[in-house]
Amino acid sequence: NFLNKPDGGRGWASFYISHGYTIYIIDQTFRGRSPWKPGNGTLSTYSAETIQQRFTAPRDYSLWSQAKLHTQWPGSGKMGDPFFDAYYASNVQFLTNATYQQSTVQAAGAALLDRIGKPVILLSHSQGGLIAWLIADIRPKLVRAIVSLEPTGPPFQEAIFSTTPARPYGLTDIPLTYSPPVVNPAVDLVKQIIAPRAAGETSCILQASSPPPRHLANLREIPTLVLTTQASYHVPYDWCTVKYLQQAGVQTDHLLLPNKGVYGNGHLMFMERNSDKVAQLLLDWIEKGTHGSHQET
Predict the structure, then answer these.
(1) How do residues 57-83 score in pLDDT, each as one tens digit?
(2) 124, 126, 148, 232: which one is catalytic?
(3) Which of 3, 83, 97, 160 counts the highest number of beta carbons within 10 A?
């Protein structure tokens, strides 16, 4: 997905290489080039119908209020369109066991950073979004910054398509390093519910103000950017993920694309028609340096 776009355009790997960056594109464990074998767990995948509804043609389904603003996917975004078919052909299965997936990717990511041997910028997306927190948590000295594109969220529960409990450690399903330490997240992470700030947003579960919120001890020195598009199903709740990070002491900026004059993008912004504009905004943030100003831009 980061190598080339479904319409034949160049992907973000080429964009960042052209700006002098060394790029490592990794597959999550048991996915893509990382082999699965019986006994590793059960695999699943998204149907073509689900991909149309959530990613490539959401304005035709209106499953969330911002979906009608989606305009940047090339073509119709539906089965039979050559760009949709090219994208769908690139899809692979994923492991359904979230704790096993996260623990194995965390270990593999840490091993990769050890091999690279110098600080890197972690750029992650969606299901892979929470992996950046996990890798940085056990290798904080080898992470210069985190750029998270609409990461899995919001804290503690699903949203939009269900409201089931999830991610008991707030951002992840497996432990993160908190200060004071978290032994039992159901007890130690005391929660409060925050009402939506505006129409079209979901409510938000944060840590309660009393006792004082626990901090993410190994992430708080790592500058972090969360990017949210205009038309994705993440628009209603990414603000909550950002607030959770900030409450936990993490230097977090929130880049809202429409606030920068970039309109019409959905969850797969790096494969859409204006993907280079999005990549440039990320590059500007990376090269501006770390500031920890908790900006929402």
Answers:
(1) 999 999 999 999 999 999 999 999 999
(2) 126
(3) 83
